[in-house]
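User: I'm writing a short methods note and want a consistent example. For LytTR family DNA-binding domain-containing protein, I'll paste the sequence; you return only the structure tokens, no commentary, since I'll be parsing the reply automatically.
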Amino acid sequence: MNELRILIVDDEAPARARLRDLLADIAAEAPNRVVAEAADGVEALERLKETEADVALVDIRMPRMDGIELVQHIVRMPHPPAVVFATAYDQYAVRAFELSAIDYLLKPMRAARLADALRKAARTPSGTGATREALRRLAPSGRRHLHCVERGRVLLVPVADVLYFKADQKYVTARTSAREFLLEESLAHLEQEFGDAFLRIHRNCIVARSAVAGFAREHGGTDEGSETHWTLMLRGVAERLPVSRRQWPQVKALLEA
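Assistant:
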């Protein structure tokens, strides 16, 4: 077994220290090296922008961003670490165990159990389809936040605040009433994850259903020509979004319903 680079994510400093000691105790049978620590999910995302890790040992209950939502972000990374949940709460442990795609450690941890978890994590990278399905069952409503990186800092974007997502080449813009955020996300994947709350109005745009204030006819100014087209009016911004001819019948039916 090659040496594993470990990221520890726990909001309690004594718990992180205890985990470091256990990892040192099992280094002979499960070679490992702690490369970073974080006190919550947001800090963990920042550490993973700076440092590569093979395994993330993730507490579940944390402020700002909990462990389950953190892993929903991790599995979308190009080279995600494998994930082992750490929890003091049986209900999370039992569900993770039943899914069998994500391992868990029940606090207080035992050294032998930690070594077993590391060996399993080394064989089961978190980017697998099985892990994505497990996360969908653990958190069926999807992520509560998206994240973007600005000037080396991770910013959280609450999904509930997003008025629309618009694709532009390899980036997606998330628009809130306050500002725009550039996300390294796929519009197709965002629609798949949040399709119940968002409505496709164009091949490059999905809109929050709750943000729609109305619709109106306009003339010209679209990539489909200069003829009359429909636009959506949104709450909180003056901007109007064009609806493609292909999407208009579906958009109209949903709005009228």
